Amino acid sequence: MIDLSQVAYSYGNDALLSDISLHLAPGSFHFLTGPSGAGKSTLLKLCYMELLPTAGQMSIFGRDVTGLGRDDIARTRRRIGVVHQDCQFLDHLPLEENLALPLTVSGRDETAEASNLHELMTWVGLSKRATALPPQLSGGERQRAALARAVIMDPEILLADEPTGNVDWEMSLRLLQLLVELNRMGKTILVATHDLNLIRAAKSQVQTRVLRIANRTLIHAGADL
Ligand code: ADP
């Protein structure tokens, strides 16, 4: 699904990431961990082609990303769902309309998709909040809404940047449960988190691999955490 070979990335002169090699197989569940500032978000941005490697090879769905034109990148991105760290919404639009936006933007028939949208909102436990405006949502509701929005286009890959960043442990476990269910449905998942307890909780439910960024490169961590 996503392959990186000896990838490097730098924002300026100093390399932030170097010699990164990573293979995300279809249906795999990876955690990406490491201290704040290590480059977890940057690596996710590379996987979403928001940034392109400054060195090395990278392919997504079997295609070299450096050879992709703008349309190819847009088409490839439609197969990838993203939960951003700050999960922003349009504050003046009710939640259900925010969630339907990716459908509208891609020209899908919203009416035809209405039952999918309703099903998705029920799945994340937000069916009763459909008409709420984003500022009225709690932190946990926002995170679940962000997850619903990321998967509404039925992506093959889900990238999530600290999806449990601002919620309590109970809500973290609930979000984890949703991620595990998505993985069981066959989605390839990469979650950046500094929360080792979340990774431990996941390991008891599903086969996961842990990647850690240390000293600018990626270490494939062993079973122990
Ligand atoms: P993490 O997600 O592990 O906290 P990030 O990928 O967000 O790490 O950031 C890694 C480093 O890159 C930080 O030092 C950050 O300040 C720097 N950085 C992130 N984005 C930019 C940018 N757009 N321009 C310059 N430096 C950046």
Structural account:
By secondary structure, the chain is α/β, with parallel strands linked by helices. The protein has a domain of 142 residues: P-loop containing nucleotide triphosphate hydrolases (Rossmann fold, 3-Layer(aba) Sandwich), CATH 3.40.50.300. 35% of the residues lie in helices and 24% in strands. The chain has seven helices and ten strands. The strands form two sheets. It has a six-stranded mixed beta sheet with strand order 6-7-8-3-9-10, with helices on both faces. It starts with a strand and ends in a 5-residue tail after the last strand. The model has no long low-confidence stretch (mean pLDDT 92). The site of adenosine-5'-diphosphate has 10 residues, from helix 1.
Brief synopsis:
The chain is α/β, with parallel strands linked by helices and 225 residues long.
Give short descriptive properties of this protein.
225 residues, alpha/beta, Rossmann fold, six-stranded mixed sheet, 7 helices, globular, binds adenosine-5'-diphosphate
Order of helices and strands: EEEHEEHEHHHEHEHEE
State the secondary-structure class: alpha/beta
The shape, in one word, is globular
Corresponding CATH superfamily of the domain at 2-79 and 155-218: P-loop containing nucleotide triphosphate hydrolases
**Helicity range of the residues?**
25-40%
N- to C-terminal distance: 26 Å
Placed side by side, the strands forming the largest sheet appear as 6-7-8-3-9-10
Q: Give me the CATH fold name of the domain at 2-79 and 155-218.
A: Rossmann fold
**What is the CATH-assigned architecture of the domain at 2-79 and 155-218?**
3-Layer(aba) Sandwich
> What's the quaternary structure here?
single chain
Major β-sheet annotation: 6 strands, mixed
Number of strands: 10
Q: What is the residue-mean pLDDT, rounded to a whole number?
A: 92
Distinct compounds present: adenosine-5'-diphosphate
Rg calc: 17 Å
Count of DSSP-assigned helices: 7
